[in-house]
Amino acid sequence: MLIIADKKIPDEAKSNLRKFGELVLLETSGITEESISGHPDIFFCKTPEILIVAPNIPDNYKNVLSEKNISFVEGRFPVGMKYPGAARYNAVITNDFIIHRTDITDPSVSEYCKRCQRIYVRQGFTRCSLLPLKDGHFITSDTGISKVLTSKGLCVLHVSSKDIFLPGYTHGFFGGACGIFENKLFVIGNFNNYCDGEKVKLFINSLGYEVVELYDGQLFDGGSIIFIPQ
């Protein structure tokens, strides 16, 4: 399995991720703002059909995917230096929904997810803010996203952004500190150091997920962890 994570995540988290697959550490320069320059969910959008990659990601990352025989397509527009251009690929895609600020979503995402219902939210950094789980369940640290999804009849756990670290900002976002693979929720941090940690664990366990805490520290928003089976 290939695992894509921000190069800036703590070393202990990197070491633990390597136990589950081959780790690719993402870093870029001069493409988007420094705080999110290594965030996988800024440059990659994983759909049920295919992996969509921003066209201006450095070529070495595209080469890794090709060498591993991982199918991907390039999106139409580059990641921008500032929001909203920086958030073109930061959508949440499930088997049923595209959840994003859909007026900024790269057209390639819509093209490969034609069967999905579009749900508009005001927060363009949607994947940073929202963790999709099984059977219409979600966790988000964004109040607006929570209200929209709840109004659609989806099951949403709303949690705090407090205690989530993102370099350069007062706080990060819950979705950016996590990744999902099969029945495991990987979190960059330890829920004992998070004000809503117990609430999250109860919710996750009720859905049959196992929690994998990647290091013994504060939750770290690394722009999600992307797992790609081979």
What features would you describe in this structure?
By secondary structure, the protein is α/β, with parallel strands linked by helices. Strand 1, helix 1 and strand 2 form a beta-alpha-beta unit. The strands form six sheets. The chain has a three-stranded mixed beta sheet with strand order 2-1-17, with no helix packed on it. The chain is built from seven helices and 17 strands. The longest helix is centred in the C-terminal third of the chain and has 10 residues. The chain has one domain: L-arginine/glycine Amidinotransferase, Chain A (5-stranded Propeller). The chain is globular. Helices cover 21% and strands 26% of the residues.
Q: Can you summarize this structure?
A:
This protein is α/β, with parallel strands linked by helices and 230 residues long. The chain is built from seven helices and 17 strands.
Strand content: 25-35%
Global geometry: globular
The CATH architecture is 5-stranded Propeller
Following the backbone from N to C, one meets helices and strands in this order, namely EHEHEEHEEEHEHEEHEEEEHEEE
**CATH C-level name:** Alpha Beta
Our count of helices gives 7
Main sheet makeup: 3 strands, mixed
- Summed over residues and divided by their number, the pLDDT gives a mean of 97
Q: Would you count the extended β strands for me?
A: 17
Distance between the termini: 5 Å
List keywords for this structure.
three-stranded mixed β-sheet, 21% helix, globular, L-arginine/glycine Amidinotransferase, Chain A, alpha/beta, 7 helices, 230 residues
